[in-house]
Design goal:
It is a single chain. Helix content is 63%, strand content 3%. It has helices spanning 3-23, 34-54, 57-61, 74-86, 93-110, 114-121, 123-144, 159-162, 168-171, 176-183, 187-198, 201-205, 228-239, 248-259, 261-268, 272-276, 282-294, 308-320, 324-337, 342-352, 357-364, 372-388, 392-405, 430-438; strands spanning 410-415, 424-429. The protein has a two-stranded antiparallel ribbon with strand order 1-2. Helix 20 (342-352) runs antiparallel to helix 21 (357-364) and helix 23 packs antiparallel against helix 24. The protein is globular, with a radius of gyration of 24 Å.
């Protein structure tokens, strides 16, 4: 039985009990009127749980685009900082820097410590993104003779940093995942960690390591008053819809918040109203804990220190830069480490679509998503491969099914104008993408 069906059944049962109790002069509840109080409490809880079940950060933040404004919610501001900081800085760098700086200033006005977001919450992801991007370009130099002048100027100073772990003599035959694993755990990683910890935010936004502006920070400026785990929890709940993507300790903090909201709000230095703007429920938290303990969902590192969620983000980043082979190799290595992980299987299938749609379809058919965004993405990818292999009837059925169920969900998808054209990576509403593909069938 679905959670919404359980809520409806429980509410109906209590409504009938309260009605019966009222008709008997409240003899069933001891003449206290407790039956009506219980009914109102369950109605309120049902409303909150329903809001939590249908909450989608992508849909919530989608209307907020362009230059950050004072009316933007915290989730939209955090989304902008996160996406901008982890994007490569050589694409529209002035806009990126301006928007990120304004968003951080607005978050500071709301009570969020900007350094806590940039250095504590996003710092590890930023340093991995920089190191993996630099390693991917270095791999192209070593394997394919890429001219160093073709490497963006912001990234060139990072290449000598990699030499502490990857000398030309020892790394010429290394695969990209092996090289990535070395640099994300060796001396280059320590350099990147120090960079995130000490360099001014403006230089972090630009990925600058040459002639950096060093800043002196007080430790309390990089966390909320309750400490590091609480800091991660605060930003997890405003940047990740799925609780499977949260840190394990964030689930503990969420349970504490649900039971003692005023105490938790005071301990992290944020208002209860602000924290309550992101709904959740105890059932959702316990489901996430169960999945993590029994089904292997969560944030355990797999390849190059990356969790499943982080690996997916890095694969997308490689694909955005046109480094398809590195993305597929990284996804393949992760799949080898966790062959039963449906999300990683889906990622590998996605990377395989442009070169071998038949093999991608075989991978997609192994996944067993029960619902949600991942099932929608799987169906969309199946429609793509059927289109590419000429199974147009199956592709049309898959697209029509997707259109009926996709709502306002957005996703990374391959966009084809015709079967012979090279695909482009696009992040757009699945509905718009499906209509575009349907017009080609």
């Amino acid at each position: 039985m679905s959670p919404s069906a359980e809520r409806s059944l429980s509410l109906l049962a209590l409504e009938r009990f309260a009605d019966d109790c009222s008709n008997r002069g409240h003899t069933l509840c001891g003449s206290s009127g407790g039956c009506l109080e219980a009914l109102e409490s369950l109605r309120g809880l049902s409303d909150v749980e329903q809001q939590a079940d249908f909450y989608d950060l992508s849909a919530t933040t989608a209307p907020f685009q362009g230059l950050p404004q004072h009316h933007w919610p915290a989730s939209a501001l955090i989304r902008l900082v996160k996406s901008s900081l982890l994007e490569v800085p050589w694409t529209d760098s002035l806009r990126r820097s301006t928007h990120t700086t304004l968003a951080l200033a607005r978050l500071g006005e709301l009570g969020f410590p900007p350094d806590a977001l940039v250095r504590t919450y996003l710092g590890a992801a930023l340093q991995r993104q920089v190191l993996l991007t630099a390693t991917a370009f270095r791999h192209e130099i070593m394997r394919n003779g890429l001219d160093i002048r073709a490497i963006p100027s912001q990234l060139q100073p990072w290449l000598p940093v990699l030499e502490a772990d990857l000398s030309a003599e020892t790394s010429a035959d290394l695969s990209f995942p092996d090289a990535a694993a070395i640099v994300t755990t060796g001396a280059a990683s320590k350099t990147a960690t120090d960079w995130v910890r000490t360099v001014a935010v403006a230089h972090l936004i630009d990925w600058r390591i040459d002639a950096p502006l060093v800043t002196t920070l007080r430790p309390q400026g990089t966390v909320v008053p309750a400490g590091r785990d609480a800091t991660v929890w605060v930003f997890d709940r405003f940047s990740c819809t799925s609780l499977d993507e949260w840190q394990r300790t964030s689930l503990d903090w969420e349970l504490l918040w649900l039971h003692s909201p005023a105490m938790v709000a005071d301990s992290v230095g944020l208002s209860s109203e602000l924290l309550a703007s992101r709904p959740s429920s105890e059932r959702m938290v316990m489901t996430a804990i169960r999945r993590r303990l029994l089904e292997g969902a969560g944030d355990d590192p797999l390849v190059a220190g990356l969790s499943s969620v982080e690996l997916r983000s890095n694969v997308v980043a490689l694909l955005q830069r046109g480094q398809l082979e590195q993305a597929r190799t990284l996804a393949s290595r992760a799949h080898e480490m966790a062959p039963g992980d449906d999300t990683l299987t889906n990622v590998l299938a996605f990377c395989t679509i442009p070169h071998d749609p038949a093999a991608a379809k075989e991978l997609l058919n192994r996944t067993r998503f029960r619902g949600g965004e991942e099932l929608l993405v799987q169906k969309a990818n199946l429609a793509t491969v059927d289109f590419l292999i000429g199974a147009k009837h199956q592709a049309r059925l898959a697209v029509l099914t997707t259109l009926r169920t996709c709502g306002e969900c957005k996703a990374w998808l391959w966009d084809y104008t015709d079967p012979g054209a090279l695909p482009s990576l696009t992040y757009r509403p699945i509905r718009d993408w499906a209509r575009r593909l349907l017009a080609l069938l």
